[in-house]
Amino acid sequence: MRPALRPVEIIRVPNGQGSLVTVLRDPEAIAPHAVEVRAPLDAALGLFDGRRETAEIGKLLRGRGIRVTDSEVERLALDLEEAAYLVGPTARARKAAIARAYAAAPVREATHAGGAYHGDPQALARFVETSCLGRAGGAKLDGEIVGLVAPHMDLWRAAVGYGHAYAALRDRMPKQLETVVVLGTCHAGLRSAFCMTRKGFATPLGELGVDGQMADELAAGAAEDVYEEELKHKGEHSIEFQCVFLRHLLGEERAARVRIVPILCGLGRPQVERRDPARDRLASRFLGTLGEALARRAGRVLVVAGADLAHVGPRFGDAAPLDEAGRHALERRDRASLDLAVALEAAPFFDHVTEDLYERRVCGIGPLYTLLRSMDALGAQRGRLLSYEQNVDPEEGSIVSHASVAYVGKA
Predict the structure, then answer these.
(1) CA distance 66 to 43
(2) Angle between the 324-342 and 346-355 helix axes, to the nearest 10 degrees?
């Protein structure tokens, strides 16, 4: 058996006994649940690349002083295959069944309701009003918001950040709004530069339908099939969380008129190569088409990006959490990136966040860059930073940072 791990998240979480344990999570939601892999076997995960037999992996680990047996490595591989974490028959069968169900569904269901936020409509509305919008300061903006950056963490931990973003939008939402382009990170990874879905999004507060005309324009103008990886939308949370707030702000009457265009932003190859996506054929073609579609709808369209910033600490593979000096240094680095984003300097922003891609792990690069490239079409000249936060895990000190930014169009 030559085990090959699928593209999944490998994180380190507290075990309740003062140490960390390795956990696998599937952002694509093909695997039905997270899997815990205890030391020392977790060292084998980095060797599950499809190139080695389990016996060879065991021998390599023992050569590094890690005491594991061949049978233990084999058992781990079999368990991960059964749990759909390996490239193999279990994952393929589950993905095929999930794809059929997704294709047949009238809308993209609220996958994370009841976990990352309240599933009950009344409880959710109260939480959004009191714990999010009610805790935001009043941002005085001149003109209508045409671009908005908000977190994509679970609502519990990023309540204040969401509040700053969407309280500002509530005050300055375009009066003639018809379409909201919602940009998100694809945590499951994309082969393509961008990925769309034809599904509207369900939330506990009601549905948001898709602007089919704009979606068709973008798909027709792209240099690749933007629906090829459509299933990635099912388990992804970055767009879903924005839809919860948008649906709350719009209410019943406006939600019946306003449509969304959900777009997952990959831009993986330009990130790895540290090359401005404007120089990538596939990315630049889509970005140009998007800009043209937005310009035709100026005054009636809004772009929202669900994007977090840094991911640092033991949960994400670092040896230790940041101390106070390290947290201040992280904030300075984040704010330097945000200064470029506020100034709508798309290429310098992309260069800055990819410079330390494997240390700071900014996961919102795709949607942030795409939003920055979109703002010229809507007349925005500069943004306003509404909030910056570092969410620190109380048990092991890992940090996810995020910000809220608003862009106003020409009056």
Answers:
(1) 8
(2) 160
Contacts of 50 (CB under 8 A, 6+ apart): 2, 3, 4, 87
Q: Are 108 and 233 in contact (CB under 8 A)?
A: yes
> What average pLDDT does the segment 235-260 reach?
97
Dihedral sign computed on CA atoms, order 78, 83, 87, 90: positive
The DSSP secondary structure of 53-101, one letter per residue, reads: -HHHHHHHHHHTT----HHHHHHHHHHHHHTT-BSSHHHHHHHHHHHHH
Confidence of residue 238 (pLDDT cuts 50, 70, 90): very high
Q: List Cα–Cα distances, 124 to 105, 120, 157, 206, 333, in angstroms.
A: 24, 6, 15, 12, 34
Whole-prediction pTM: 0.93
For the chain, list the domains and their CATH numbers: 9-100 (no CATH), 108-408 (3.40.830.10)
Question: Quick count: other Cβ atoms within 10 Å of Cβ 404?
Answer: 27
